[in-house]
Amino acid sequence: MNHALIALNVLVYLAVDVFAEIAGWSAAVRWKAALMLWPQAPTPLQFVSYQFLHGDLWHLLGNMLFLWVFGNSVNSKMGNIAYLSFYLASGVFAGLGFAWTSEMPCLGASGAVAGVTTAYLVLFPRSEVTVFYWLWFYLGTTHIRALLLIGLKIILWDNILAPRLTAGAGVQTVAYSAHIAGYLFGFVLCCLLLLVRALPRDQFDIVGLMRRYLRRRQFQVAMMDAEARARATYGRVAAPVATSAEVLEARPVVVDDEITQLRGRISGAIADRDYAAAVEAYEALVARDPRQCLPRGNMLLVANQLAAMNRYPQAAAAYERFLKAYSTDPEAPQVRLLLGILFARHLGRPAEARVYLEESVARLRDPEQIRQARHWLEQIGFPSGVQPASD
Fold first, then answer.
1. pTM of full prediction above 0.90
2. Does domain 2-206 have CATH number 1.10.760.10?
3. CB 179 within 8 A of CB 159
């Protein structure tokens, strides 16, 4: 659906602004003017039609670039029909915000794209966006967290601070009020959809991050009490702890610093994209405590890195640890397929491979992945749907 919206915007621009001008069709100018949003006398149709009109080629390309960068992931999360409805509703709400604050006509997909942008911020705040930069003669790319890029650069700087700094420098041709209204609509609606579980929830969306932050704050407040710290450390056998500052300072809470340091090293290495160091620290961690499991994304990344390094037994153990901790994760079916292939192809353990591959056939939805699972079942002598003979 996102690709269809991009194509529709491009086709409308070509028809109204390019081909009509080449053909000398003067009626296209009147038609375009009628379909813009006119705040003084708006019609219901204009709140939708203005979203697909653009002032020039750069206006179109800028909007479509942002729609392509942020829209595909939001589309995948929402589904096609819900995404289309959300996109159009964002544009309508942005149009209402513009009509409330301006008397000039408005056109462009910016309001709808603004809603999609903050929807991405809500659904994928910790993801990274690849940004192109140009400093004099030096060109390159860097990765910036979506939370920082969208929140600070796109919303705060581009639409709030920069317009105020340039106020009075000339006529404003950017509908900032439409942008702000679109951002507000996308952010609030997506948060509500997550809270009522109308959208699939995971621990990395903004609601999950906020809940974990609040739990950490509650824990920190609770641990300010000496008795609570003692119970957390020693359980029900904890002796009452005196409240004097001298006694509290003399009896610090005992924690496993080595495990804490190893988990910190893993997170730091992954943030620095030093995956070999992350794997080394992970193996030290499980050697220290085999019960340890990383956060979902880190756990999957370390398992994938072990497989890429041809350390198949360790990779299989990491994947199994992931499934034990995150059995209902959306990527669990693909992980089962990977485990089945590892056991069948690299570890020579057909019994374990069969279990995971048959689960993959039953749970996967992608035809190509199902075909792979059936192929490896045949390779180990258990064709899908055929029970082995027993004596």
1. no
2. no
3. yes
Show the tokens assigned to 285: 């961690």
User: 385: how many CB neighbours lie within 10 A of its CB?
Assistant: 9
What CA dihedral angle connects 187, 189, 191 and 192, to 10 degrees?
160
What are the residue ranges spanned by the domains of the chain?
2-206, 208-250, 256-322, 330-386
Q: Which of 10, 51, 50 is nearest to 33 (CA)?
A: 50
136-195 pLDDT, tens digit each: 777 888 888 887 888 877 887 677 776 665 555 444 567 788 899 999 999 999 999 999
Q: Which amino acid is located at 100 in the chain?
A: W
Q: Encoding tokens for residue 8?
A: 């529709």
CATH code assigned to 256-322: 1.25.40.10
Task: Tell me the torsion sign for CA atoms 46, 51, 52, 54.
Answer: positive
Instruction: For 4-56, write each residue's pLDDT tens digit.
Output: 999 999 999 999 888 888 877 778 888 888 999 999 888 999 999 999 999 88
